[in-house]
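Lecture 7 notes: from sequence to structure.
We start with the chain below.
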Amino acid sequence: MIWIAHINENSKEIQTVKEHSENTASLCRDFSIPALKDILYMTGLLHDIGKYQVSFQERINGKNIKVEHSGCGAKEVQKKYPSILKWLMSYCIAGHHSGIPDGGFKDDIGKSTLHGRLEREFEDYSIYKEELEEIDIDEKAFCEFLVEDCGNNMDMVIDKFAFLVRYCFSCLTDADSIDTATFCTGEINRSLNADFENCLAKVNKHLDSLPCESVLQKTRAVLQEQVFSQVGQDAGIYLMNMPTGSGKTLCSIKFALQRAINMGKQRIIYIIPYNSIIEQTADTFEKVFGEDAEILRHQSTFSYDEESGYSEDYQEVVKYATENWDARIIITTAVQFFETIYSNKRSKLRKMHNMADSILVFDEAHLMPVKYLKPCLEAVSYITKYLNSEAVLLTATMPDYEKLVNEYAVPGNKVCNLIYDTSMFSMFNKCKYEHTGALSEEALLNKSAIYPSSLIVVNKRSSARALYKLCRGKKFHLSTYMTAYDRSVVISDIKSELKKLEKDYPDFENVPEDRRITVISTSLIEAGVDLDFYTVFREMAGLDNILQAGGRCNREGKRKDASVFIFTLETEDKSISNDERPNITKGLVGKYKDISCKESIDEYYNLLYFFNKDEIIKRTISKRCEALDAIPFKEYAEEFHMIDTNTISIVVARDKKSSDMIEQLKITKKGNPRKLQKYALSVYKYEFDDLLKQGAVDDYGSGIYCLANTDYYEKETGIKFEAEDYIF
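Predicted structure tokens for the same chain:
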């Protein structure tokens, strides 16, 4: 009997289970780190032995029946291998189609947990023993690898084991997908390429072309040279603490390229906190690298097939590369990166193994959310310690990551500070911070109106909207109540107006009232938006937020006296908040003359990270279980969200293209969320429910909610929660 794994629908050729199993096993071994090669070979070899069931062969030959096959391999490794190894392999094999299951418990009869699946009965599949040639696995070596760096701490063993399960699952599912696709389509997808040496040469040429005349420009060059002089230092994690305006982006990619060349790394993954910054970073890299790099942008707001300038062939390659990150330079978001690692799904985890053998650059690294700090640091530590990668943590407000890694992740991971002389940081202090206390909305706007250009950053979208409506003169508003499409237009308009203002009034003297600019925004403007204001007003928040806002004040250091005013709004709700960061900052404002000094930043992060230890450690997966066979992979993945998920996206027609897509969605009941993302805004669940009651939103049966009534949207301030009143 010929045991069939796949049938090519076009050629009607067959691929046997033996062929598919051996191909998958070989790919698994190729993908794997040395410590797991034999384990992954056997995982790949046994993952589809359930296809040796007669009923599966009947199904693949046309019989309309459902046949489970993934549970067979999971049951078989339970018989074959000792305790720890069998659980690692069982999780991967049992979930290689539906996702890694929760471990569950021994009495889970009929449930979809791993224990529940292992209790299921299957037809005889033992014929695989005659077809597949097995290899020995050194379980002792694996156990030693697992407990390395864990001491006698069972929580650390569980967290590391869970990481290794996801990594092995990634190798298995990508190998399975590639071999299946290659056979069924006959196509071998190529990688997205980049010539690291040519890219490095172009970065050097660009940096050499930059002016180096002013004191600030010379200081910037000296600071960057500190980083470049350390490129020969070997470490797992590098810290690049560089002030705002010191050229962090190009400095970090030069360092990453040089390390990748020196150490023979396969890829560079640039991880950015916000979609808005990706646009700017990707544009910079594409302009500098030109044709020497095919950059993969993996973000929710970007769709290659709607961008001009990309060929159909390139789009196909990108589509494949997005699934498994088979590219040499990748730009993605922190959400995409960490939610991949802590997912249980095949579609997400498939790309995780390509985080190995890489240089990871985390831009604005301090923005890792406090509640997920331990899982995030653990992930970075595991990838750099065990997967032959290196990480660069890049920020202008650097926490003590060496201490944090030892406290919350893998102790002993070598950390290297790339900036060893911080005495020049004062050259980048282009503004002073003043605390004004409580201000009414009117007093705040009156105070800001006397300056040529002002940025007012508040904590709530409702506050931004209220201030904007009260504000007079040339004004702009930014918040996530607006679509990304409108925000990008507004940011472009702001840049244009600021440029005109500086051209017409280079000394900023005697600027008439009608030319003064006021921008009112939420915190979205604080990171990566390259704008330069005369004065900044920042509502009391975390110190990192305030310093980021300060980075938009006197950005080029052209003036000696520039101020950032820290305020509280009199109208703000005075009830106790769960966010302790503003309270920590209040204490620092009273203690330090300059809250941007190193001592202030260190104290802020010490209070934030080390006095909240109980809160930080409780969100690891090890706190959900006590044994390796009971890890709740599915449950944990469903709860792991880097950003507030209590929001719902609403798509708004903003141009002909978006209108056409919405009309098509009404007809077909289907839409591409990624293509529509830049026309979307976010609202809280209670706000969405209110709009739904009013009939203002509709998903037209597609699951993608759109604004059905345009009276509920203004391009200046975004979504409204009441329509205009009309009198007939």
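Points to note: The chain has 29 helices and 21 strands. The radius of gyration is 28 Å.
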